[in-house]
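Hey, quick one: can you model this chain's 3D structure?
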Amino acid sequence: EKPSLKLRVDDLTLDLASQHVDRGGKAIDLSPRELMLLKVFMRDPGRVFSRTELCERVWEHAHDYDTKLVEVFVGRLRRKIGDPPLIQTVRHVGYSIGDPR
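Sure thing. Here's the predicted structure for all 101 residues.
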């Protein structure tokens, strides 16, 4: 029994082996950066990530990013994932996928 390489939050599925993302059976096309961001969220659903932490995990070089960039990418992910929204904004803290715990 090999471990499942699929991450699932609600009806959103990310297959780590094929990098395929779908929601409710409908494929979602993500850029490599968007995919990395989604992986960070989906590996730890409910956890609230600060913008800085997301930057450090998704942009290798700390000096290449700006936390505004995270907002832009989260916005893109939200649009692509569609409704009902899965990525929550936790005011003054950051973002989380699924219900923040």
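One thing worth noting: The two ends are 30 Å apart (CA to CA).
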